[in-house]
Amino acid sequence: MKKIAIITGATAGIGKATAKILAANGYDVVITGRREERLKQTEKEIRNHTDAEVLTRCFDVRIREEVEQHLGTLQGKWKNADVLVNNAGLASGLNPIHEGDIDDWETMLDTNVRGLLYVTRTITPGMVQRRSGHVVNIGSIAGKEVYENGNVYCATKHAVDALSKAMRIDLVEHNIKVTAIHPGAAETEFSVVRFHGDREKAGKVYEGFTPLYEDDIAEAVLFTVTRPPHVNINELVIMATAQASASKTVKKNTIGH
Ligand code: NDP
Ligand code: 8X3
User: Is there a domain that residue 254 lies in?
Assistant: First the structure.
């Protein structure tokens, strides 16, 4: 029987690439996100290229009742998730702390921290019951370092880092693996969302160097979930070759993709 993976935020970027690569490598997938059309598109792409079964669940991870309604009621084999990829997340704004937009802050805290917790609290009891499962949290280099104007986004990703370590400690006795993957700059819709739809501003983030792409992270997720039962990858920090740290990227780098 195929394994089951739940991937949150699979309508774009890293989550979509992860859903596709897991589906191509023997997993049936539950894909989630708020944009129904995008979910259908991801489902179609997976069905066209793999023999995986796909279940779509359209909801907002910030709303506890929606998480419970959509992920707490999975039926049949779909109840038995082998892998949960907590990927849904975002940055909103990039301002010094005294000029920050409090609505942006709440969006990031609610999505990256509360949302991840709601999903984890819904799915992990089944894993505990089955004494089997793997939680992969998508953190960020922003969870390892802070950078200018990154304040609240960095705080949410530091929380993801802390929660990943905490989950590993709480779940180890139940035979559940926990992995945190911390990417550096990856060209997805991330910056378009951070700059509230300003594509020109977003594009500038990746100018002059070759960033990561969503597949680079999806491949890492696949690697971590396909290790033998006695091996867990606790965490991976993955950066573009041109990026040494959160605040040091060598521009005009021409390493090909
Ligand atoms: P994208 O914007 O391309 O994708 C984000 C995904 O998250 C979308 O599928 C979006 O779906 C989903 N999402 C956002 N908010 C919610 C919500 N409230 N409820 C449900 N789903 C939500 O960005 P990335 O692929 O780059 O980001 C994926 C993860 O990787 C995030 O956690 C991000 O913080 C992290 N990351 C990204 C990096 C980068 O440079 N790109 C680097 C380090 C970490 P929808 O809008 O349809 O709901
Ligand atoms: C996204 C990458 O460098 O903007 O987490 O924090 S960064």
Answer: no
**Can you give the pLDDT at residue 255?**
57
Q: Which domain holds residue 220?
A: 3-249
Taking only the tens place, the pLDDT of each residue in 91-104 is 999 999 999 999 99
Give the global pTM: 0.98
Closest residue to atom 5 of ligand 2, CA basis:
140
Count of CA atoms in the C-beta half-sphere (13 A) of 130: 16
Instruction: Report the CATH number that the domain containing residue 117 is assigned in CATH.
Output: 3.40.50.720
Query: How distant, in Å, are the alpha carbons of 219, 237, 240, 242, 245 from that of 256?
Result: 18, 21, 11, 11, 20
- Tell me the per-residue pLDDT of 115-166, one tens digit each, with 9 for 90 and over: 999 999 999 999 999 999 999 999 999 999 999 999 999 999 999 999 999 9
142 ligand 2 Cβ < 6 A: yes
* DSSP category for residue 246: T
Number of domains in the chain: 1
254: pLDDT strictly greater than 80: no
Ligand 2 centroid to residue 234 C-alpha, Å: 20
Is the CB of residue 62 less than 8 Å from the CB of residue 115?
A: yes
The reply to whether ligand 2 has any atom less than 6 angstroms from the CB of 240 is no
